[in-house]
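Human: Cast an eye over this sequence-structure pair and say how the chain folds.
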Amino acid sequence: MKVFLVDDSVVIRRRLKRMLADVKQLQVIGEAGDAQTATTDAILEQKPDVVLLDIHLLDGSGIDVLERLKKANPTLMVIILTDYPFPQYRDKCMEAGADFFFIKSTQFDQVVPTLKQLIQRTNESAAHPPTQ
């Protein structure tokens, strides 16, 4: 599973890369600290399976990035990681197509188990393709 990281904090991106380094069948294929790079690299060049996306970016809104990513690839999995624990942000992200919404201060540790579940689901789907 290919993962792309989008967060304006270099510290957060480094922490995520360390956390994800030991997850089997998972590869961090790119990262961005701003909306422009995220939409260009993530959509056009890298073709990730999952994007870990912050709401607040240096040059724009992560929600706008989410909408652009989902428009370009509706099956792309997007996990929101944010410092904004407000329900209105969660609701807006989920309406825009986010698959998961985690608060960095309290739910950061849920990222790896969530990705492992997604990998397991992908493996099960590949092992048992739908019959026609």
Remarks:
- The chain has one domain: 2-108.
- Residues 2-108 form a domain with the Rossmann fold fold (CATH 3.40.50.2300).
